[in-house]
Request: fold
Amino acid sequence: MKLDWQSLNKFLMLNLLVILQLVFISESIAQKQILDKAMHTIRAGDKPEWDEFKNQSPLKQLTIKFEGRENLSEQTLQIRQYDVKQSWQVLLNGNKLGNLVTDMNDMIIYLSVPPKGIVSGQNTLQILPSSPEPDDISIGEIILYEGPLKQKLNEAQLTIGVTGKKNNSSIPCRITIVNGFGILQMTGASSNEKLAVRPGNIYSLEGKITIGLPAGKYTIYAGRGFEYSVDSIQIVIKPGEHLQKNLILEQEVITKGWISSDPHIHTYTYSRHGDATIAERALSIAGEGIELPIVTDHNIKVDMAEIMKSSGANRFCTPVMGMEFTTNLGHFNVFPVDAATAVPGAKVIDWNSLIDSLHPGSNQVVILNHARDIHNGFRPFGEKRHLAIAGSSLDGWKFPANAMEVVNSGSLQTNNFQLLQDWFGMMNRGYFLTPVGSSDSHDVSRYLVGQARTYIKSDDEQPDHINIDEAIKNLLAGKVTVSLGLFTQITVNKNYGPGEIVPPAKEFRVTVEVSGPAWTNLNHLRLYANGKKIREAYYNKPGQPGLKGKETWVLPKSKQDLFLVAIAEGPYKYLPYWPLVKPFQPVSTKFTPVVIGSTGAVWIDNDGDGLPTCAYQYAFNAWQESNGEVNAFIHQLGSYDEAVAVQAASLLHEKGWSLQEPQLLKALSTAKADIQLGFQNYLKAWSQFKAAQ
Reply:
C-alpha cells in the first residue's frame, strides 16, 4: 500500500498518542508501592464489639515496616478502613500524618505524606487508637503513591447531572461514589456554598457536580432520601479523561398531606462535635427532602433562616428554631423557640425541677431523646429507675415531656423495637405522648439527616411556606407517622387516623397501608392494641416501589378504650447510599438492622365518653369500685385486657402488696388468661428491676 507524506504523518501521530497514553497509564500504575495487601482487625478495649469480630485475633495497633527512598516532594498514602467509631491516628516514622475518618462505613481514604516524611531505608507506619474507648476496626490495603494528594484525587474528571423525572429539572440530591468493590471512594471535591463533601458522598443543592477521581472503575448513585428512587451508573474512567453522565430521580413514596420533619438536627458550628457546618447542614437537609427541619443544638438557639436563604436551600423547606436542653438527667428537644426565649440552666436535681426550668408553652413540643442511652451516667428509661412494661417511674418524678423518640437513626438500639415498647408502656400509664422519629445527626454523611423522620399530618404543598403553628399543633395531637425506610398509614372506619378518637360502633374496620421506595422492602406488618399484637401479615415482594402492602382487619367492640398502632418491618441489607449505622451504645454484640414504619396512635372510644381512657385509669377505677378488697378487684378486671392487668399489678405493688400473697394468687387462679398474663409479665419485669439494683 502506498502512503503519501500527509497520511504517513497522521498515522505516526495517532500511534504516538496511543503509545504516550499507554506509557502514562503504565506509569500511573507503576508509581506505587503496596505496603500491605491484607485487612487487619485492630481492637481498642478488651472485648469484641460485634459478633463479626468475635473469632478474630485482633491487634492493639497496626505496625508496618517498609523499605523506602527519601521523598523530596509530597506523596500520597491510600488506606481502606471499616467500622471506625472512635478516633484513630496514623503515624509515619513517629510523625502524625492525620486521622482515620470517624465513620463506620467501608471506605477508601487518602492522606498526604509531606516531603522527607519517608526516609531512605526502613520506615515505620503505625495506626493506633487515640483513646481507650472500645472500638473494633478493620484496616489495610495500604498503598503509597508517588505524587501529591491533589494529583491522585484528580487523575480524571467526572460531571454528573441529576434531574427529577416529573419536570426534568435539576433537583437537590446526595451523590454516592463507590469503587469496583463497592467501597466508598474519596474524591477530589471540596465543600462550598453548593456542595457538602465527605468520602464517597456529596450533597448537591443544584443537582450537578464536577469532581476529580483517581482513575478506575466506579458505581455512581444518586438519591434524595427516603421518598425517592435511586438511580445509578457504572463507569470506567481513565487518566486524563472527563466523563459526563446524567441520572434521573422519581418520587416513589407519595406523602401528600404529610410534612416530612426531622426534629433532632445538629451542626458542628454550634454543637462542636460531629462535622456538619451550618452551611453544609442546609445542603444536606435539602438533599434528603426534609421539609420541616428542627435545629436543636445543645443549650443554644440556632436560626438557620439566613444561611438557608443565602444558599438557596430555603426553596425546599421551612426551618424551625429549637434547642436540645442537655442536662445531667437526660436530653430534651424543645421547639419552637424564638430569639427572646430564655435558655434554661442545664443543672437540674430531678425532672420536677426540669419542668420548672422549661416552662413549656401551650404550643411547644418537648421530646425525651434517646431514652435508653446513657449520658452523664444517667439513663432516662434505665432498668434501675423505670419499669417499661407499666410506664412507671420508680423515683416519683413527674414526666417532663409531651413526646418521645421511638426511632433515632443516629442512636439505634440493639433491640430495634425497644423504644416503641417503652412508648406503649407510657401510653398505657396515661402519658399520651407523640411518637417521634429523628436522626440526631451531627454529621454530613456518617449519620444521615432525616434517615429516621417524623411525618406530620398537615399541608405540604409549599415546603418553603409551611404553617408552623398548624404543624406543631398536629404534632402535639399525635397526628404523625414515623419512618425509617417505610411509610405506614392507618385509618379506622374510613375517617379516623393517628391523633384522633373513633366514636363507638358495632365494629371497627382498620385499614393499614405501607409504602416505600424500590430499595426497601416489607416483610412483616403488625397491628397492636394497647401495646399487644392482635393482627399480623407477611409479605415477600422485593423491589416494589410505592405501595408495598395493604390490609383491612375488622375488630369487634370491646368494653374499654384502645389505642391502635400499626408497625411495618422489613429486612435491611447494606446500601452504600443509605447506610444504617450500628448502635452507638450496644447492649449486645449482635445486631440485625431493619427498616421500620410506625403509625401514631388512633384511639377507639369503646366506653363512649368522648375521651381516650388509658389502661391505668381502668385499673384505678376498678380498685376504687372494689373498695380495696382484692377478690373484688380481680373480679372487676374481668372485663379488661392484659394492659389493664399490668397496670393493676403496678397499682397493687405501689400500695404495698406483694404479688406473691396467697390471697392474691388464689383470686388470680380463677381470672381469665389475659389478667393472669398481665400479672405474670409485671412480676417478671419487677424481678429484672430488682436484679438490676
Observations:
- Residues 5-30 form the longest helix (26 residues).
- Residues 258-604 form a domain with the TIM Barrel fold (CATH 3.20.20.140).
- Confidence is low (pLDDT under 50) at residues 1-30.
